[in-house]
């Protein structure tokens, strides 16, 4: 029997954990990574970062994105208001000249249009006189660049002694990849030469050279978009193209004013010259009208249509040469 | 020998049996049987001896010789002196027509019996051997009808005094008119054209023709433009040794020379030394000098010795910088020839007609695979150079990215193209073509000693022989590339000629060592 018994002062159900380790050192490895990402702690999203801060960032990103989308939409709408029946897709992507644009047609289409690839780069060679630069073809070149990977180059032939600088850079800056020709689907070579009529050569075996800016424009346009299937509409396009080149560009002053009057009349009825959308006829007439005189000197409907064409943004390459 | 006719009253007039009277000789020279000297105040014609030609005419110290090129209607009615060669001389009764030639220019001259000239003088003029050099004092006269056969078409010389400075032998090994005749023409009239071997054997006379003068002036222009263009781009001209210890391009086509107790070789190209200069930090170099290739090929475009224009430069990021530099130099040369040497090109075109040379700026660059594809596409009917010409209308282009297997061991393989880890198919090398014939073979060179050794072993080359070459890359070498052209071949192809010997002054080939 115990001598003295003391009543327990506190309950005996309290657990205490006894330490198993004498000295505890912080884990140096864990600490290093922790200190390493302490600079990025804010972006890291670890438990170090205040979750509220993170949410704020996410919300801000979302708002910015929506703002940009709205801005683009408003721009598009603004253009639609002034430009009847414009294609919204084209307005959004028209100003970008990057060869990886989303509206991209495959090599299979090129094969069906131009014949099978034999290992050499399919090169479209155009011989033009620097006294009469072919603006229509520059515009079509820009449209080609959006659809395919095009290797463009400009050369000066020995029959011409000198060419102004803007004619040398009319096809845009040199592509970074131009060291390797095989990476491109199509070649576009413009040679400034002393020729009387513009000439295009391609695939000597199957084709004879094509002469005349109008005909080359038709060839290039077919690579970009098909001709309208309705024969009446196709004929209308063709007739406007011919009018543009024969009467507007090369005709006498009387012929030119007659054509401008005809254009005025046609544009009073419809927003575009042939059909509901921009077509080759519009491109050809735009270039020829502006080559013959400044925009301000044409009739009212023609001026409105000229403005509408400019808004579409395809005619960028032609503008520096029109000054 | 003139006889002094003592019967005549004045002792100062001498009568010659053949040549008539003339005033006396305050002579100084020798009357040896060959050189009849006439001089003095009133001598009118004759041969001059060596002594006189040097210490001439003390009475006319300020005589000025006019160039035939400058004989134009502006000089009409002036009395001038001309020194030229007698191209042709033709007597017609009381007159003798001479054509006097000076390099590319010639003018018609006339000796007529009259108060200034005697019948004997006319006969003397008609008998002067062709190609003799004469000094002529004459009056320049305008002509109503243009003289088509001469370059100076509007004037004619009426000779008052004529002296032969240097006489040519009467029988010439070849006739200059025959040399200049275009190839097709001769056959029709039954007149001969001269065959190339005869021309080359008598090169001194053949080089006097207007065509040859034009060709070599153009060649001089090419050299000049090459130097000027490169110097303006910051290149340094170097001279490399031609007696070397190891063959640079391969052992087969090299000349051996005895070198004291051992033997040495004549350089096949300045390749090794150009590269060493780049490793020595000269950055951009060029050299103009002879190149010796012991190729036993008797073709229209091979010589055993020719002038090589070589370029080598270090580049920054891509070997296409080298291609651009070389093609730009070539284009500047072509432009310079087109703008400043049109007369020469036209002159050559009269005897050897051809199409004018066409080129693009910047130069067209195609890849080897494309060239092959075009050949396949064209089939056997059309050569691929014609195809390129009809599409792009250029006589000058570059084919890039040749297969590695056909290039020398020092060519850098294409890093982007690996069939498997150690097997490259293509290389960073290029060839340039003029009128479908190759004029330059160049590449990026291997600048790493390790890789160079591997490639040399792969090509079974004895490493001992190229030890000093490989050593030059061990102490830091920049990436570099270059190429070399042959001066004669470039001139030949620019003018559209068909044989490189026409463009080399004294050509050397397996069968020809002289002149």
Report on this model:
The complex is a heterodimer of chains A (323) and B (515). Chain A folds into two domains: 69-224, Glutathione S-transferase Yfyf (Class Pi), Chain A, domain 2 (Up-down Bundle), CATH 1.20.1050; 231-322, Glutathione S-transferase Yfyf (Class Pi), Chain A, domain 2 (Up-down Bundle). Chain A has 13 helices and five strands. Chain A has helices at residues 28-36, 41-44, 51-82, 88-93, 107-114, 135-147, 165-168, 213-224, 231-249, 253-269, 280-292, 300-312, 319-322; strands spanning 123-128, 150-157, 186-192, 199-201, 210-211. Chain A is elongated. Chain A starts with 27 loop residues before the first helix and ends with a helix. Chain B folds into four domains: 3-56, no CATH class; 68-166, OB fold (Dihydrolipoamide Acetyltransferase, E2P) (Beta Barrel), CATH 2.40.50.140; 176-206, no CATH class; 210-503, BirA Bifunctional Protein, domain 2 (2-Layer Sandwich), CATH 3.30.930. In chain B, strands 9-13-14-22-21-20-17-16 form an eight-stranded mixed β-sheet, with helices on both faces. A five-stranded mixed β-barrel of chain B has the order 4-5-6-8-7. Chain B has a three-stranded antiparallel β-sheet with strand order 10-12-11, with no helix packed on it. In chain B, strand 18 (418-420) and strand 19 (423-424) form a beta hairpin.
């Amino acid at each position: 029997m115990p001598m003295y018994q003391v009543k327990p002062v506190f309950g005996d159900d309290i657990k205490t954990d006894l330490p198993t380790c004498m000295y505890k050192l912080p884990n140096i490895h864990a600490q290093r990574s922790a200190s390493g990402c302490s600079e990025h702690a804010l972006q890291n999203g670890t438990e170090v970062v205040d979750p509220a801060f993170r949410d704020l960032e996410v919300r801000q990103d979302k708002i910015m994105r929506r703002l940009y989308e709205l801005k683009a939409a408003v721009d598009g709408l603004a253009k639609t208001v002034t430009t009847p029946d414009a294609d919204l897709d084209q307005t959004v992507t028209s100003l970008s000249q990057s060869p990886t644009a989303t509206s991209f047609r495959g090599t299979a289409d090129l094969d069906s249009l131009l014949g099978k690839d034999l290992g050499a780069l399919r090169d479209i060679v155009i011989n033009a006189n620097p006294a009469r630069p072919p603006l229509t073809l520059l515009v079509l070149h820009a449209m080609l660049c959006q659809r395919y990977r095009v290797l463009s180059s400009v050369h000066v032939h020995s029959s011409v002694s000198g060419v102004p600088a803007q004619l040398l850079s009319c096809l845009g800056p040199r592509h970074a990849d131009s060291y390797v020709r095989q990476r491109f689907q199509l070649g576009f070579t413009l040679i400034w030469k002393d020729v009387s009529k513009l000439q295009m050569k391609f695939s000597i075996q199957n084709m004879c050279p094509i002469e005349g800016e109008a005909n080359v424009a038709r060839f290039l346009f077919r690579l970009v978009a098909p001709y309208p299937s309705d024969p009446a509409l196709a004929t209308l396009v063709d007739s406007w193209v011919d009018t543009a080149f024969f009467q507007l560009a090369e005709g006498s002053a009387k012929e030119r004013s007659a054509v401008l009057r005809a254009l005025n009349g046609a544009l009073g009825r419809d927003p575009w010259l042939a059909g509901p959308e921009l077509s080759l006829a519009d491109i050809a007439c735009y270039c020829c009208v502006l080559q013959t005189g400044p925009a301000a000197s044409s009739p009212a409907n023609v001026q409105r249509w000229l403005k509408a064409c400019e808004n579409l943004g395809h005619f960028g390459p032609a503008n520096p040469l029109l000054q | 020998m003139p006889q002094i006719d003592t019967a005549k009253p004045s002792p100062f007039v001498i009568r010659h049996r053949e040549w008539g009277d003339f005033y006396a000789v305050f002579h100084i020279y020798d009357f040896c049987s060959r050189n009849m000297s006439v001089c003095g105040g009133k001598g009118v014609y004759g041969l001059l001896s060596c002594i006189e030609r040097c210490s001439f005419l003390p009475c006319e110290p300020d005589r000025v010789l006019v160039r035939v090129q400058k004989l134009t209607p502006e000089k009409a009615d002036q009395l001038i002196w001309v020194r030229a060669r007698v191209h042709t001389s033709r007597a017609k009764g009381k007159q003798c027509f001479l054509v006097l030639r000076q390099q590319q220019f010639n003018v018609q001259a006339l000796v007529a019996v009259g108060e200034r000239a005697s019948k004997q003088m006319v006969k003397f003029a008609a008998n002067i051997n062709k190609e003799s050099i004469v000094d002529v004092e004459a009056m320049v006269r305008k002509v109503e009808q243009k003289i088509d056969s001469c370059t100076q078409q509007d004037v004619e010389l009426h000779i008052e005094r004529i002296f032969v400075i240097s006489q040519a032998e009467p029988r010439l090994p070849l006739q200059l008119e025959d040399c200049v005749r275009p190839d097709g023409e001769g056959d029709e009239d039954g007149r001969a054209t001269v065959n190339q071997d005869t021309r080359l054997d008598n090169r001194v006379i053949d080089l006097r023709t207007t065509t040859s003068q034009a060709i070599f002036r153009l060649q001089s222009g090419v050299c000049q433009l090459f130097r000027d263009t490169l110097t303006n781009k910051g290149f340094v001209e170097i001279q490399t040794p031609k007696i070397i210890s190891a063959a640079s391009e391969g052992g087969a086509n090299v000349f051996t020379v005895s070198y004291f107790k051992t033997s040495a070789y004549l350089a096949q190209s300045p390749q090794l030394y150009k590269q060493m200069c780049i490793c020595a930090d000269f950055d951009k170099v060029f050299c103009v000098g002879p190149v010796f290739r012991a190729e036993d090929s008797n073709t229209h475009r091979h010589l055993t010795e020719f002038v090589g224009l070589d370029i080598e430069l270090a580049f920054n990021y891509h070997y296409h910088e080298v291609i651009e530099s070389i093609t730009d130099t070539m284009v500047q040369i072509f432009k310079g020839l087109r703008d400043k040497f049109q007369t020469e090109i036209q002159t050559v075109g009269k005897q050897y007609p051809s199409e004018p040379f066409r080129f693009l700026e910047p130069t067209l660059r195609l890849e080897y695979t494309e060239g092959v594809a075009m050949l396949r596409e064209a089939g056997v009917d059309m050569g691929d150079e014609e195809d390129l010409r009809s599409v792009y209308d250029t006589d000058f282009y570059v084919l890039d990215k040749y297969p590695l297997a056909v290039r020398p061991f020092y060519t850098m393989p294409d890093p982007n193209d690996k069939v498997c880890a150690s097997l490259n198919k293509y290389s960073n090398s290029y060839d340039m073509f003029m009128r479908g014939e190759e004029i330059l073979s160049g590449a990026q060179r291997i600048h790493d000693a390790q890789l160079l050794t591997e490639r040399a072993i792969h090509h079974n080359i004895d490493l001992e022989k190229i030890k000093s070459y490989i050593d030059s890359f061990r102490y830091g070498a920049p990436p570099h590339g270059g190429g070399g052209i042959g001066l004669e071949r470039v001139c030949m192809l620019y003018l559209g000629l068909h044989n490189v010997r026409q463009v080399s002054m004294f050509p050397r080939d397996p069968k020809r060592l002289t002149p």
